[in-house]
Amino acid sequence: MYITCLDLEGVLVPEIWIAFANATGIEELKKTTRDEPDYNKLMQYRIAILKEHGLGLKEIQDVIATIDPMPGAKEFLDELRSFCQVIIISDTFTQFATPLMKKLGWPTIFCNSLVVSESGEVTDFKMRVEQSKLTTVKALQSIGYETIAAGDSYNDLGMIRASKAGFLFRSTDKIKADNPDLPAFENYDEFLDAIRSAMD
Predict the structure, then answer these.
(1) Is residue 105 within 8 Å of 130, Cβ to Cβ?
(2) Closest by CA position to 77, among listed 110, 100, 109, 105
(3) In the chain, pLDDT over 70 holds for what percent of residues?
(4) Fold observed for domain 2-12+71-112+128-199
(5) Mean pLDDT of 155-172
(6) Count of CB atoms within 10 A of residue 191's CB?
(7) What are the residue boundaries of the structural domains of the chain, listed by start?
(8) Which residues are catalytic?
(9) What is the four-CA torsion angle of 124, 128, 129, 131, rounded to 10 degrees?
(10) What value does the mean pLDDT take over residues 83-88?
């Protein structure tokens, strides 16, 4: 039995924080897990910038409402789910992901949650578990599943390397150069073929 574990942002939907940075003109919010491997450090940095600019959850959700999945992402996901169980494992937050899951046809997602004050200020975040992607893949393996994993960022490498087959998808040149042994794909058709081959 196989389960394919996919990252969300950069693989199926555009990067939420980059979209928000573009909408607000706050360049510092363009930093993502492709740039900063330490997720806790990255999130504390983001929360401080939101506070500095007086921006809260509503402003971010308003931008998320305008984001659509990447062209071909829903069709890719539908086809993949026709022959393999799929879980999206993301370091995003429930408060961000729900509208995007609707546009993707409600796939299963495991993610984290934001701590939000009554006034709507983002004050903190709660990780589901430590190293959530790697921990989830190992847990799935412990109950009898073979995992296939794919993502585009530093925080995906643990689950990719722990899986029977792992891929980079639309990753950065640096991450691809640092991990030359990992197959890297740029389009969904080739990516789908690679997943099928890994299951043979």
Answers:
(1) no
(2) 105
(3) 100
(4) Rossmann fold (3.40.50)
(5) 96
(6) 22
(7) 2-12+71-112+128-199
(8) 7, 9
(9) -80
(10) 97
